[in-house]
Design a protein that fits this description.
By secondary structure, the chain is mainly alpha-helical. It has three domains: about 55 residues; about 80 residues, DNA polymerase, domain 1; about 160 residues, Intergrase catalytic core (hpI Integrase, Chain A, Orthogonal Bundle). The strands form two sheets. The chain has a three-stranded antiparallel β-sheet, covered by helices on one side. A three-stranded antiparallel β-sheet has the order 4-5-6. Helix 4 crosses helix 6, helix 7 crosses helix 11 and helix 8 runs antiparallel to helix 10. The longest helix is centred in the middle third of the chain and has 21 residues. The chain starts with a strand and ends with a helix.
């Protein structure tokens, strides 16, 4: 049975209505509204759900904001993940969005769709937006399963995600490599050159320490990688020469740059040589260097697929499938050459 009670301030002015629902077998539910009509509508829904046996407690979700959940997620969930820094940055960006001030129970798919449009306006790529949505979706899942918010829906599951285009296939154009190296500070120029020789990811280069570099055995050991597996990268003579140009220490960061610092240094070099940003065909991203390096591995005839995968750290052969046309072209040339030689 529902009861409705006036809420007045100290001067006796009516400021709202409290709805209270009591039903045997269920905890008493109370909530304050601006108008009696809103209180009655809410009570009717609660009573109906209790009568049908589908009621779930919404009090936790109705009194906890998304920002509070994000802060809790950052304390309890994110630290347990490998390479948690990118996720931490994405969650902090969610904290700056208006939707973070909303109560969990009030967030709808439309609110997430509005956030998606805002990210598109900011120039975020479809894949970046999907990564932001993925961490938010997991937050709602944790809130449902672990934080007493069983009654909420996951609004991220209700929206259309940006369509991810085919993998970028931007290659370095003639003269771009030299221009970028000339525009970059010496240590960062060495970093660019090393990525082109090894295909290392941004985070892998940022976390590279001298204790994991062995120039005598010509190898780099990466204890932590994106796919969660350690790997050892063999170094070409050019890679050894690149690393030998840097002031070596017994320990510490090789390049002294965080992942964000690499992005900033890359933007400075890119702007200096006039390469555009964004996601058009002319734009060149730092991650495109890894694609360039992998393409060069495939263009060589002395490396098989398993060797290339061991160097680049791609998780599956399927991820390397997009490069097979380069190997096919080489095989065709060799076949043509063999035919002419016969």
């Amino acid at each position: 049975m529902a009861g409705f009670y006036e809420q007045r301030d100290r001067e006796g002015n009516l400021i709202g209505w409290q709805a209270k629902v009591r039903k045997k077998g269920y905890p008493t539910q109370t909530k304050v509204f601006r108008s009696k009509r809103e209180a009655q509508e809410w009570a009717a829904v609660v009573e109906s759900e209790m009568a049908r046996g589908v009621w779930r407690d919404r009090s936790e979700a109705e009194n906890t904001t998304l920002s509070e959940c994000i802060e809790r997620y950052l304390r309890e969930v994110t630290p347990a993940k490998k390479n948690c820094r990118p996720e931490e940055l994405r969650l902090k960006q969610w904290l700056r969005r208006p939707v973070s001030r909303r109560f969990m129970a009030s967030i709808r798919g439309k609110d997430i769709a509005d956030a998606i449009r805002a990210m598109e306006t900011e120039g975020k790529s479809p894949n970046t937006i999907r990564l932001h949505l993925a961490v938010l979706s997991h937050l709602f899942t944790v809130a449902q399963s672990d934080w007493g918010m069983e009654a909420i829906d996951n609004p991220v599951a209700r929206v259309r995600k940006p369509r991810v285009p085919r993998g970028r296939e931007r290659r370095l154009l003639p003269g771009e490599m030299g221009a970028l190296l000339g525009a970059a500070e010496m240590r960062f120029a060495c970093l660019i050159a090393l990525v082109l020789e090894t295909g290392m990811r941004r985070e892998e280069v940022a976390s590279l320490h001298w204790e994991n570099v062995n120039l005598k055995s010509r190898s780099i050991f990466l204890p932590k990688t994106k796919n969660g597996e350690a790997r050892t990268i063999p170094l070409s003579p050019a890679s050894v020469e690149i690393l030998s140009m840097i002031d070596q220490k017994s320990a510490g960061s090789v390049f002294g740059l965080t992942a964000e610092g690499i992005d900033s240094a890359w933007d400075r070099a890119r702007i200096a040589v006039g390469i555009p940003s964004g996601w058009g065909g002319d734009a060149l991203h730092f991650h495109d260097l890894r694609h360039e390096a992998t393409s060069r591995f495939f263009e060589r005839t002395d490396l098989d697929l398993m060797e290339i995968r061991a160097i680049t750290g791609h998780k599956s052969m399927q991820m390397l499938a997009r490069y097979t046309h380069l190997r096919t072209a080489n095989l065709a040339d060799r076949l043509a050459g063999g035919k002419r030689g016969g």
